[in-house]
Design brief:
WH-like_DNA-bd_sf, DNA-binding, Regulatory protein, luxR family, single chain, Tscrpt_reg_LuxR_C, mainly alpha, DNA binding, Arc Repressor Mutant, subunit A, 4 helices
């Protein structure tokens, strides 16, 4: 996972929406959506909740 994808995953785990992620990382909303999609595919997850659980488990 890239550094940016890890940042996005951390924000997803905090409950941030794609719009909020975009604002915090100064990227477009579409770019945030793409990052979330890449994370889901790389980890073979189906939901943001699974990303949040994965981040929590890692910490």
């Amino acid at each position: 996972m890239t550094k940016r994808e890890q940042q996005v995953a951390d924000l997803v785990a905090q409950g941030a929406t794609n719009k909020e992620i975009a604002g915090r990382l100064n990227i477009s909303r579409r770019t945030a959506e793409v990052h979330v999609d890449h994370i889901l595919r790389k980890l073979k997850f189906a939901s943001r909740a699974q990303i949040a659980a994965w981040v929590a488990e890692k910490s």
